[in-house]
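Good morning,

Both structures are done.
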Amino acid sequence: MSTSPIVKSPCPCRRLESGAGHHFFGYYNKTVWDRSGRYLLANQVAMMDANLTPDLPAEVGFFDLENGDRFHCLDRTTAWNWQMGCQLQWLDGSPQREVIYNCRTEDANSVYPGFGSTVYNIDTGVKRELPLPVYVVSPDSRFALCVDYSRLYITHETIGYAEDNPPSQMPNAPANDGIHYMDIATGQSRLITSYADLRNFKPVKSMDKAIHWVSHIEINPTSSRFLMLHRWTERVKDETCFLHRLITVNPDGTDMRLLEDSDHPLPQLEENFDPNAVGTYDYEKSEYQISHPMWCAKDRIIVWAPHAGSIHYHLYTDADNGEVEIIGKNILNENGHMSFSPTNRRWLLSDTYPDSETHERILFLYDTEANRRYDIGSFYADPGLKKENRCDLHPRWSRDGKQVCIDSVHESERQMYLIDVSGITGN
């Protein structure tokens, strides 16, 4: 075997064969496989690429991997984006096969008028609506954390939901909005962390005139803590001016902890700055970026972030002044969508953003014991895709750790692919 720290080791890859349509799932932070390993969640759309509008539908459903990858449509939704889909996910805490996803509603009196979520019981065919759109659901499926996608459409359009007439502005840091806790069984909700709370928690000067929002909300495996990226800016149309920090909180909003702060100088505000010189992925590749945090244990978080003057994949302990460890120093040098194998923490799965010249994205496994990276696939991304319509690989593990599922456009269609990694991981 090669002694190089980076080894090209392509793995068997097959496209999910589904007939007509394009397919994608969205984010990297949840598995698409059900508990049996037979059914795989997906969104089906009529086109590979489109500017999103409030009436553009996506079919919500799943592939049957034991029946020729047949796609079963459960419902349709118009509350989705290319990056995260409709937040479709299995409710693993339910004894039956249930999924949840976001939708638009006619309820003008809800917390976020016009938006809610749907729970669909695949075993019975019964569905019910909940009054708030979800961002993330707890592993025990008892509660969801919810935010205003209209606010996201203004502050970070890529992860918001399209509107015909979005408000031109919103309050910078309101005390009556932020992260809501919603009970999955009853739909009852309450505000647990406001934007005013976040702005007032260990504030810095750059927050004073900025608009605030949150993203990358994740709940730990025991459903006892959640993390978020708190972001703020005075220029929502310029991602390179976003500032961010990594925060953890209890589900009732108590015991807020600051793990990392990336308040930093903004050369983009200098008079000689040329915005046309900024590449599509320069924001993601920024040396100041805090990105893609994921829980890997009850009190451990992996994240791409700057710490102590150097940016790496870092492993944080969820504690004030907690331990911070570098993962893959001198080998893992780019931001990606990372997660550990659900069956063996030895293996870290991640990807890269497209190379600026070849436009190839690399999918890889990192062996934390041998300090070796295995490049298991390379996938072309059309450079003509815009920020909001791009297709990141967003790799997701199967529950048994033997396969990986990605979204990709390398065959000039937006489709989903399964990659067998068992030959490397030994599962």
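Second structure follows.
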Amino acid sequence: MIESMTTELKREYTDDIKYAVVAFANTDGGKIYVGINDDGSVYGVGSTDATVLRITNMIRDSIRPDVTMFTECAVETMEGKPVVVLTVQRGTARPYYLAGKGIRPEGVYVRQSSSSVPASESAILNMIKETSGDRYEDARSINQQLTFEKAENYFAKRNLPFGDQQKRTLNIIGSDGTYTNLGMLLSDQCVHTIKMAVFNGSRKSVFRDRKELTGSLLTQLEDAYSYIDQFNRTRAEFEGLDRIDKRDYPGEALREALLNAITHRDYSFSGSTLISIFDDRIEFVTIGGLVRGLTFDDIMLGVSALRNQNLANVFYRLNLIEAYGTGILKINESYADCAVKPQFEVTDNAFKITLPNSNYAGERKDVATPAKVEGKVDRQEILLRLAEKRGYIVRKDVEGALKVSQATAILILRDMVEKGLLIKEGSGKLQKYRIAE
């Protein structure tokens, strides 16, 4: 008998056995023989019961997640001497790691030839992806030494419990008892940041101030809003004897743009969320384009597909989000009485919201309209021209002119009515839409 990819020999019990257990569970399984010399000769075990107890206690206390269901300890007789044989199967919750080291190379071991060696970071990430799926927030966090001081305070202020049971319900703790990436995002050790910058004028030429926000996403949310609020000045206007105060940016628009940037970003990328404050506008740039299957026009109509479903659910529980898919609509509604409107741009890997300063009186930087970003003629203009030519339009006209489904046509017409562009007349099959006077 010799050591190999699936065989480990130990003369007697030592605490080092745990490295081989982790390595076998992370690779292709194997057997550990206690009572066999390195040269393969049988030495034997003095007290088999005590050795089995020490091994089982070590596995339970030293290795995470729980790997006991993939191990079996038995006593065999070889050359007339008792030998303890520990059989380890390849686990389903890889990577397994030493409890005191965490999911890091010094805590995660794999089998190479006849040795147990630290796994590389790329190997660890591949194991996490293989066993946790593609959703980032569901995967196990690399860091398992997480604290939740900010999250606990946030839940306490809203009289909501935040114990282990709630963490499991919210998927902060996964089914294997380890913290997920969602837990990492809400923890005080969150590795993702928001970078904020303030510029003179309307271009990125002269910095006035810059700040990087760290900690729990809940901390970053509060800090980002407070920082932006410093630059959201109030302008006073008078109508007769009445004074009317008007802020540069509607509070509702700032809130929704910030929540959108945090809840919809792709956290599998390491780059920061960027918030740039100019004299004439604020730009929110989020890593991660549209969720697969959605188009730019879909989100403008309020269609929502969440990239981070569990994170959005936490924010919903905390009353930070009132309803899914309403953020863009609320931003547009908050600028309903303003001459300059918000702009939305999307690429394959980023999403950008630009909120104009409604009190700004200087020359503005040119900003592409959604139609230009998408390379299309604005759909509403097509329908308005058609209605002007024919005197009215019906739903089937929208379907034919824009090549959209019945449901999308209804949403477009409803949006144009709410914006005051069209007036609805009649009902059922006789329903028509005319241009508003």
